[in-house]
Every structure is written in C-alpha cells, then in structure tokens.
Prior knowledge:
The structure is a single chain. This protein is mainly alpha-helical. Helices cover 47% and strands 9% of the residues. It is built from 4 helices and 2 strands, in the order αααββα. Strands 1-2 form a two-stranded antiparallel sheet. It is globular.
Amino acid sequence: MFLVDSSSSIPAHVQLRDQVKFAIGVGRLRVGDTLPSVRDLERQLAIDKNKIWRAYQDLAKAGYISLRQGKGAQVNSALPLEVGSKKRKSCE
C-alpha cells in the first residue's frame, strides 16, 4: 500500500506521512479504517519502526488518525478541514 524511496532526500517518515494523507484525501483510506501496524510496515518497507511511529504521531497531532492502545492507528472521524470532497476532487 505504501512505498518509501530510501534514496530520496525526503526523510522516510515524511514520505510515509504524506502518502497516508494522500490516501485519506483521495478516499483510498476512509473514516474508521485501520492503518497497517508499525511492525507490519517495518517488515514491508524495511525502515526503522521509530520512523513509522514518528509518521503516525505526526498524523495524529494533525488530526488525521487516532492512536489507541490495542486498536492501532485508525482514520479519524473528524478529519482536518482540508480533507474532504474539495480536496478529493483536486487530487483526482
């Protein structure tokens, strides 16, 4: 679902954060969807779990996802104002 380019000058956590935001913006991830676990992404992307955790924390602080013990990371029901039908249409 997500890809990280290790040769890019953009840090891995920023690449992941931006891809999650894009997926939410275009409707590929919807309210209530659960994101892959840190452990799963660590295996899939071959990047350090701290970078994944940092991306998830950034997304939570911005209001895109909720982090809950035992439930993982889920797309928030109250998304930031920039995410919605207008943003989705511009991405399409």
